[in-house]
Amino acid sequence: MKRYLILLALAVGALMAYSQNTYTLIASINNYRARPDLNDLPVNSKVAKRIKSVMAKQPNSTVSMLTGRYATRDSIVSQLHRLCDNAQPGDRIFFFYLGHGAKGALAVYDSNLPYHELMRIFKTSLASQIFVFIEACHSASVEWAKGVYWNDDPSPKPKLAFFTSSQAEELTWSEAAINANGYFDQAVVLGLKGLCDEDQNKQITVKELEKYIYNYVVKRSMGIQHPQLVTSPDNMDEIIVSW
Predict the structure, then answer these.
(1) Exposure pattern of 209-237 as b/e (b: 16+ CB <10 Å)?
(2) Is the dihedral of CA 80, 83, 88, 92 positive or negative?
(3) Distances (CA, A) of 163 to 69, 126, 228
(4) If you average pLDDT over every residue of the chain, what do you get?
(5) CATH 3.40.50.1460 correct for 20-242
(6) Using an 8 Å Cβ cutoff, are 188 and 195 in contact?
(7) 80-107 pLDDT, tens per residue?
(8) pTM above 0.70, yes or no
(9) Which of 36, 98, 190, 220 is deepest in the core (most CB within 10 A)?
(10) Residue 178 clears pLDDT 70, i.e. is over it
(11) Strand, helix or coil for residue 13
(12) Domain coordinates in residue numbering, the chain
């Protein structure tokens, strides 16, 4: 009987893992035509395609992209609401943003999208996990809004992790010699492909990816850029992807 129960538990666990859905939204902005004061980011579309390729390999994966003039505030908010509404317990949501940033907000194609608005959207989902990757200047200023999410509200909400490319007072830099817009993007793609898997168990945890991204970016930027992780302490061993 004991052996039967163990086998049943393993079967149920395998079934749950197989039925887990992965929803991904990638927002990538190359040109801010309405903002001539902002530099173009010509390689963002290539990075977005590499991220899409990585995420498409996850089980039961659905990947959506908003690029260029389609990556408006209303479009991004609408797509995130759709993902959060569709996701059920056991599911994961990924949001990748590649573009300019401001203190306290993403500088999307037509306006700013405050981080506190993202927090409020994510709180509505039934998903088990939400992972956000932000390649933008001042991106760790998302921490200023964390009270909106990690407050005293006892209502259940997804485990949330923000991987940001730079500190709140820092700019995010790129390197022309590599085929990526920024040091952070390159580290994220390589890490999710398995280079950060220290124990070689084919699973990437929050802790493993955070360590890899930080060391990679600080080294490549020669110490002028410092990625940050904004999450709760109990989230460090959560699995982000399998590879």
Answers:
(1) bbebbbebbbebbeeebebbbbbeeebee
(2) negative
(3) 24, 21, 6
(4) 89
(5) yes
(6) no
(7) 999 999 999 999 999 999 999 999 999 9
(8) yes
(9) 98
(10) no
(11) helix
(12) 20-242
